[in-house]
Every structure is written in C-alpha cells, then in structure tokens.
Amino acid sequence: MTSKTAQELALPVGVTLDRFIMASQSAFPYATGELSQLLRDIAIAGKIINREINRAGLVDIAGGNGTENVQGENQQKLDIVANIRFIRALKNGGEVCAILSEEEEDIIYTGNEHGKYVVAMDPLDGSSNIDVNVSIGTIFSIYRRVTPTGSPATMDDFLQGGRKQVAAGYILYGSSTMLVFSTGDGVNGFTLDQSLGEFILSHKNISSPNNGTIFSVNEGNYYSYLPSVQKYLDNCKQRGYSARYIGSLVGDFHRNLLKGGIYLYPSTKKDPKGKLRLLYECYPLAFIAEKSGGKASDGFGAILDIVPTSGHQRSPIYVGSAAMVKESVQP
Ligand SMILES: O=P(O)(O)OC[C@H]1O[C@](O)(COP(=O)(O)O)[C@@H](O)[C@@H]1O
Ligand SMILES: [Mg+2]
Ligand SMILES: [Mg+2]
User: Superkingdom of this entry's organism (predicted)?
Assistant: First the structure.
C-alpha cells in the first residue's frame, strides 16, 4: 500500500493528524483502517510521553534507574517510563501483536494475536540528554507480520528487512513536539498543539535538500574513525561547514532533514559495528531519509538493503542530504 502525498490529497497545513490519516486511508479502497488506527495509537503514546518529559524535573522520573538494558547501557527512568507507556498504548490499540524495544531483550507480546502489525521501537532516543533539557525523541518502525494472525509473532516478523517497513517515523520532544512519519510515499510532519492536544499538519511533503553545510558527528571519536571518515570530516571543516551535534539522533536528524546536512555515526575502535541499532534507529530514519529524497548508507551500501540477522544488531550510519552522504562514503 503506498500513501498519497498531502499534495495529492490536497490537505492544507493546519489539518489534524486524524483528518490526514482518514484522507490518506480513503485514497485506498482496500485499506481496512488498522494501520491508520496504529498511527493514531503512536500519536497517543507520544502525547503521554511528551507530558511525562515536560514534568520530569518536577516528579521523581529524572535520573538513572539503576538498571541496564540489553545493550549494557544504564537505563534512565524516562527510558523505562517511555517503554511502558508505548507498550500500553499499542496493547490497548489492538493492532499490534508484538513489539521489539531497545529497552527489552526479547519480543514483547501484546496479547493481540490477531493484530496484523509488529513495531520495533526506540522509546526514548538521546537518553544522555534527558536530564539536561535537550531535545530527545522516540523512533518507530512498522511491519505487517509474515506469521499467520492468531499465532504468536516470531523474530521473522521483525527481520524482514528495511524495505519491508510499511511505515516509520519519529516523535521529537524539542522546543515543540513533532511527529514525522511516512507510509511509503512522502514524509509529513505534525506539530502538537499542546492547548488542543492535537497533532496538526505543519510540515507538508518534507523534501530533504540535496546538499547542505551542516555535519553532525561525535568529534570526540575523531581519532577512532577510519582514515576515510577523517578525510571527509576534514573536507567539511576546510569548507567551513557548521558542526552541529546535540547527541540525540532524532534531534540531529530532524534539523538536517529540514536544513540540509549529514549525521554520521561510523564504526569506531570501540564499536567496530557502529553504535546505533539497525531495526529501531537506522532502518526507520533511513526510510524517512529516502522517502524525502535523501540517502542513508552504512558506508558500503544503502541501510535499507542490509539483510538483518538479529533484533538488536548495530550498524554504522551516514544519513541525510543525498550529495553529502554520497561523498561521505567515498571522500
Ligand atoms: O554519546 P555518543 O557516543 O555521541 O552517542 C550519541 C548517540 O547515541 C544515542 O543517544 C543512542 O540512542 P539512545 O539514547 O536511544 O540509546 C543517539 O541518540 C545519539 O545520536
Ligand atoms: Mg536511540
Ligand atoms: Mg533509546
């Protein structure tokens, strides 16, 4: 099922997410409404997490949780809160039969065995920025299950490959809260009107500039990157490009999507396979990048063409404006 762009649907900036989803669905005679409902459930979870984040400093959900996730990372309390809230919203929505989360090793079964979709998610991205009031996000990737409905989902449902995503996107909790997603054709952004509690279409048919002058990378790892990466970064600096890195993938990606730029997390001596997770960080952002005219590579080929082998595998990533990604992998 490919969606129609907001353009083709003649939907003006200012329409609500619900109206946009309904109009998109009506463009497809065979649509059954389940994916539409799932997108609504994600929006609801986003509003709840947004509220938790806004008041994190006021109530006892700031700081570390004293536990580790499957990646061996210290979990923040908000990582856990976001994970729980997202799982609950998808369970209650009824469309999702299983979830793979950054915060849990194994598949999470929702009990909706008749649900046709599975979701891979990074409930809270940019965890190192949670307590310091810097933009953070949620990233999600949606697949139609390949196992029969009525039976328990398996890893096969999650390891279909990036090009099998039926929808993907992120929620950015920044100076405003935005939901950006694609169901295959066109990328649209919705800003949360806090007073109405509604996501409103604010960025219609986002198109990634082909080139840019912003590069986002952890320069602290410079001497741990491959010489080819060092050469590319030197080129950027010699040209006087702006270095912008907030340490929240969603925040850095979103800025570069709108302004033109590149985010890269190449392999390092510490993380030779890269740091970011393929299924719920790289694939969904690569989907958004490609559907908006940008590119996403692992240094050898397109991220979306990587054949996945495990749920929490990592990958190097170079993502953003097409011309910059192309140069970054062949400086
Ligand atoms: O601190 P580093 O090594 O630069 O890594 C920062 C990157 O790691 C991440 O925080 C990883 O995501 P999580 O916070 O979801 O674990 C990205 O958001 C960010 O771009
Ligand atoms: Mg993340
Ligand atoms: Mg995370």
Answer: Bacteria
User: Which residue type sits at 235?
Assistant: N
Question: Which tens digits make up the pLDDT trace of 256-280?
Answer: 999 999 999 999 999 999 999 999 9
User: Which ipTM score applies to this complex?
Assistant: 0.98
Q: Amino acid letter at 85?
A: R
CA of 12 to the centre of ligand 3 (A): 33
Residue 96 sits at φ, ψ, to 5 deg, of -105, 125
Q: Is 247 in the pocket of ligand 1 (CB under 6 A)?
A: yes
C-alpha span between 38 and 173 (Å, rounded): 20
Does 126 contact ligand 1 (Cβ within 6 A)? yes
Which of 3.40.50.1220, 1.10.10.10, 3.30.540.10, 3.40.50.2000 is the CATH number of 15-205?
A: 3.30.540.10
- Ligand that comes closest to the CA of residue 251: 1
Q: Does domain 214-329 sit in CATH 3.40.190.80?
A: yes
Ligand 1 atom with least separation from CA of 246: 20
List the chain domain ranges.
15-205, 214-329
**DSSP classification of residue 219:** G
Per-residue pLDDT of 213-227, as tens digits, reads 999 999 999 999 999
Q: What are the beta bridge partners of residue 264?
A: 318
Span from the CA of 10 to the centroid of ligand 2 (angstroms):
34
